[in-house]
Design brief:
- This protein has a three-stranded antiparallel sheet.
- Strand 2 (74-77) and strand 3 form a beta hairpin.
- The longest helix is centred in the N-terminal third of the chain and has 16 residues, at 2-17.
- It has one domain (2-90): Arc Repressor Mutant, subunit A (Orthogonal Bundle), CATH 1.10.10.
- The protein is 61% helix and 11% strand.
- Helix 2 (20-34) packs across helix 3, helix 2 packs across helix 4 and helix 3 (47-54) crosses helix 4 (58-70).
- The protein has helices spanning 2-17, 20-34, 47-54, 58-70, 86-90, and strands at residues 43-44, 74-77, 80-83.
- By secondary structure, it is mainly α.
- It is globular and about 40 Å long.
Length: 93
């Protein structure tokens, strides 16, 4: 239970003080880890749902996804996307 409280505290601090890109990247990384994501798997969740988890507006979240896509960290196809480089997403500040 203490681990869950600590993780929730960290998520709340990140939502309050993290940059948009960091919030977006951390949300994708956390979601991928919860799903035991493997390279090549497709993540099927709406961008607005992920934006809600990150605590940012969907439009802002989508702009960050576009930046990550242009940098080659993600591949997007409609409502689905694939993480190309999870390690680079983890290092975003």
């Amino acid at each position: 239970m203490a681990e869950n409280v600590s993780a929730l505290k960290e998520q709340l601090l990140q939502m309050a003080y993290g940059s948009v890109n960091k919030k977006t990247a951390a949300t994708i990384v956390n979601f991928a880890e919860k799903l035991n994501y493997k390279p090549g798997d497709t993540i099927k969740i709406s961008r607005s749902d992920l934006a809600s988890i990150a605590g940012i507006a969907p439009e802002t979240f989508i702009r960050a996804l576009t930046i990550f896509k242009n940098k080659g960290f993600l591949k997007a196809d409609g409502k689905n996307f694939k993480v190309v480089d999870l390690e680079k997403l983890k290092r975003i500040k």
